[in-house]
Design a protein that fits this description.
- This protein is of the alpha/beta class.
- Helix 3 packs across helix 4, helix 7 crosses helix 11 and helix 9 crosses helix 12.
- Strand 12, helix 10 and strand 13 form a beta-alpha-beta unit.
- It has a seven-stranded parallel β-sheet with strand order 3-2-1-4-5-6-7, with helices on both faces. The chain has a six-stranded parallel β-sheet with strand order 10-9-8-11-12-13, sandwiched between helices.
- The protein has two domains: 220 residues, 3-Layer(aba) Sandwich (Rossmann fold); 160 residues, Glycogen Phosphorylase B (Rossmann fold), CATH 3.40.50.2000.
- The protein is built from 14 helices and 13 strands.
Amino acid sequence: MKILLCPLSDGGYLYPTIAAGRELRRRGHQVSVLGRSTAAPVVAEAGLPFAVAEDFGGRRAFSATWWGKTGPAQYRATLRAARDTGADVLVTSVLCNGALLAAEALDLPVVVVGLSVHLWDYRTGGGDEPHLGRTRASRTLDCRQIHTATREEVGLAGRASRWADDPLPGDALLLRGDPALEYPGAELPERVTHVGPLAWEPKPDPAEVEAVTDQMARSGKPVVYVHLGRFFGGSSLWPRLNEAFTGGRFQAVVEQGRSTEPRPAPDADILLVRKPWMGPLVDLAGMVLANGTSAPVLAALLRGRPLALSPNGSEQPLLTGACVRAGVAVRVPTAPSADPAALLERAWHDDGLRARARALGAGLAARDSASHAADVVERVAGTSVPQVARASASPAARTPVSPAAQAPAPTAAPASAIPKEDHEYAISRPR
């Protein structure tokens, strides 16, 4: 079977898809990757053939930053690459409307690698879930509207969708978290499956790891690993970080990630880095402070590290709420009167928090997630498209490319302001 991986090329989306792809290749399938040119070194290290999206008309098409505007370009690039590779099945990521529509146009099955929690409407239950930022219903509506708009732009509006008006188009959605992170009593939609973390990242340069380790050792202070996500119009963590790591007991290794404008204070115990890997840095730390994106949360839990989370947009509020509910994280208040250093001190010494993080992480680590993901891909490829139809879908026989309009797709609606969460640590507690 020929499989084309076409996720977003940002590490948080690309790496878990590579984990599944490497397992599929181990099983004897032909696996290749379509992505931005900047992803070429990472894919080469993974040992998979690589197709450059820009060569197929996909400039910016697989960037998380531009996901809402580049659906048509992603559609065209995926169509052309799928034909070029003779793909029998596509494996993409969330936010890839163009890849999903290409699968429709080519009558190919498609599997979506998701985040660590389910973001949209549950099948049943969850009606009493507290809302952190946007509701599940608003996310569902936005996804449906953006997908519909992209369908119109690429010329598929007159064709009935294979998935009707489902906000989760695709033959399967793979969640990388644990059922314990879903709202109690809620039931996932039929095509959604927990497979586990799909943990993979490029091998770190030993010299770079040693340099960071030596710098941390010189100060002798306990290390907190900080991973910054996008702000989405919310609050920057930099004022909180400078306050927490200036003249205090802790030091921080701060992965800038996809954030912009780093602002460490000159006298703060902060080492700013930008690495394509995080595992060795989490290993150095006793706690992880993040905005609440899937990659650092999963990296922390897999190593039994408790979390301190300060969410803004995207999945950050919902995943933060799930981690707080599971007792593996505390929420960092944004109020100016809050003392972030005191929060870290209490959380660091919270034995229950640490024990629950270790237990949940052990459960995640015990999952053979790449194998589970590969099982789903094989099942979807075998059942969604009959063998005769797959054989007839040769590059020469597949549906012609529909003409795409040149106007960009609408951007996603901005996340609403995040209300204060009832479960955050109370700064007024005595030490």
